[in-house]
Specification:
The chain has a single domain, classed as Flavodoxin domain (Rossmann fold), CATH 3.40.50. Helix 1 packs across helix 8. It contains eight helices and six strands. By secondary structure, the chain is α/β, with parallel strands linked by helices.
Length: about 210
């Protein structure tokens, strides 16, 4: 299985750690993984110019998202990780979601059937993590992906972590938060396998 992990944080630290923690768990299960961080990259806003819709050749902006687009298409499963800003997604996370319009203009079903998982990191225990995860799930649902949470009794909508505003050190010490990542990652992996077996068996979701 091929998994693409994305950090929507402009800073090194907590979100990077959380995404790579999940990718490490998936590596142990035999998944091939790739990682993308927005940090330090030039990423322009979607300006709704309709270049992608009219030309079907990608985005008018030729910036750091070329690699991101390639890996979104490549992956069987996609993990978005975001810090919580103002109780929801970071601006960078929202921007790269908006910019997916460029690949969807070429093929509206390019993300259909992929499995999606979210991780949200807050400086407070209740800093908007679940709202951020809902926004990530909205992206998955709109694009005909299958979102996965961690299930009842501990993880619910996905991985929720508390950094105490100490970045990597705070996340690595948040055992309750890391437990939500482990639970969600297991369900994410299991669903990818189920989807793969369904395809191999000739199953249909129509």
């Amino acid at each position: 299985m091929k998994v693409f992990g994305i950090s929507g944080s402009p800073r090194a630290g907590g979100t990077d750690y959380a995404i790579n923690y999940a990718l490490g768990l998936l590596n142990e299960r035999g998944c091939e993984t790739r990682y993308f961080s927005v940090r330090g990259k030039e990423i322009k806003f979607c300006i709704h110019c309709d270049y992608c819709m009219k030309n079907k050749v990608g985005c008018v902006h030729k910036d750091a998202l070329i690699e991101y687009y390639e890996n979104m298409v490549w992956a069987d499963g996609i993990i978005f990780g975001t810090p919580c800003y103002q109780g929801t997604l970071s601006g960078q996370t929202k921007t790269i979601m908006d910019r997916c319009r460029a690949i969807l203009a070429k093929d509206p079903l390019v993300l259909k059937g992929k499995t999606g998982m979210g991780l949200a990191i807050g400086g407070d225990r209740n800093g908007g993590q679940e709202i951020a995860l809902q926004m990530i799930h909205n992206f998955f649902i709109i694009n005909e992906m299958t979102p996965v949470g961690g299930g009842s009794f501990g993880a619910n909508l996905g991985g929720t972590l508390w950094s105490h505003d100490h970045g990597r050190e705070g996340i690595s010490a948040d055992e309750d938060g890391l437990k939500t990542v482990r639970k969600t990652t297991k369900r994410f992996y299991d669903l990818m396998i189920k989807m793969r077996l369904q395809v191999q068996g000739g199953g249909s979701d129509s």
